[in-house]
Amino acid sequence: MTTMFGPHQLRPRAVLTLLAEGFARWMGAHIAPFRALVAEHHTAVVVQGIHLDFDRPDLGFTDADWLSARTRIHVGEDGQRLAVLLDILAAERRVVHGCLDLRVVLLAEDDSLGAAPGSLPEVLMGRFEEAEIQPMRARALAQDHAAPNGGELLRQQWDTLLCRSACEVADQWSFIEMVELATHARERLFATAEDPDRAARHVVSVPVRSVRAGFRRPLYVFDTCRILTSVHAGGDGGLIVTHALGSPDNNRPHLRVREILDPLS
User: Fold this and answer.
1) For 38, 50, 157, 196, which has the most beta carbons within 10 A of its beta carbon?
2) Of 222, 227, 145, nearest to 180 (Cα)?
3) In this structure, are residues 181 and 227 in contact, taking their beta carbons and an 8 Å threshold?
4) Cα 170 versus chain centre, distance
5) Half-sphere exposure of 55 toward its Cβ, with a 13 Å CA cutoff?
6) For 51-95, how does the pLDDT look when each residue is reduced to its tens digit (9 = 90+)?
């Protein structure tokens, strides 16, 4: 579908949608359908980290007739965390590698879907293969993934209202839509510039090489979300774009997203 692609590559939003679908399909085939996980086992997961890496050469819409997605899931020894690993392939060539870091939560047995940190029930842990159970800990947003190579080139702050189109069934933000909102914030740097300089043109002119996101706590439907975006030069001539998303009433971000962009040709 053309909606899965931008002018440079497969959209990060499309990759995250495939990650979510891969998780649901794998769990349904091997452990329990997600509906049963929630409704019968009163268990769910929240996304704490996202890692996307796009391989060169970038895949364009006309480069392949179809895509293949391969999903693996690992669970921590204590049942508190899951890692969803996805490879997207075109004609057997990997074009994207993605990972979701998930925290298991236990749900209140009512319609509120209130949740507290917990572990997978023993009956579900027993359905994992031995090789799928591994030592695991939380992986923070990798601050050393690509270090800035100079001062700040661009900065912008703006507020937006979170409507239900950006939220999931419990009326809290969707991790897919929040990363998409970071993409919007980067493109706004160019669209709102009165006289776009080289850096402002750069942020919309090249592929994204990697995305890292670390979630701390959610916002909810009809909350105001403040997005602060800054751009620095990277060590290879590319750009590092960082986004801090959160509440205007709280200086500590609820979500941080880092995008690494290719050099400008």
Assistant:
1) 50
2) 227
3) yes
4) 19
5) 11
6) 999 999 999 999 999 999 999 999 999 999 999 999 999 988 999
Closest by CA position to 77, among listed 30, 123, 24, 137: 137
* Cβ density class 57-89: b for 16+ within 10 Å, e for less: ebbeeeeeeebebebebbbbeebbbbbbbbbbb
pLDDT at 170: 85
Reported in sequence order, the residue ranges of 16-127 that DSSP labels E, i.e. its strands, are 43-54, 68-76, 81-90, 93-107, 115-117
pLDDT of 146 over the 60 cut: no
Neighbours of 101 (CB within 10 A): 23
Q: What is the DSSP string of 144-197?
A: TSS---SSEEEEEEEEEE--GGGB-TTSBB-HHHHHHHHHHHHHHHHHT-SS--
Paired tokens of 154: 């661009």
pTM for the predicted model, two decimal places: 0.92
Residue 1 pLDDT grade (very low, low, confident, very high; cuts 50, 70, 90): confident
C-alpha 85/C-alpha 101 separation (Å) is 9
How many helices, marked H, and strands, marked E, lie in the chain?
5, 11
Q: What is the pLDDT of residue 125?
A: 97
Residue whose pair of structure tokens reads 């419990």 in the numeric block: 170
CA distances from 155 to 101, 200, 238 (A): 29, 10, 17
- Rounded CA-CA distance 70/92 in Å is 11
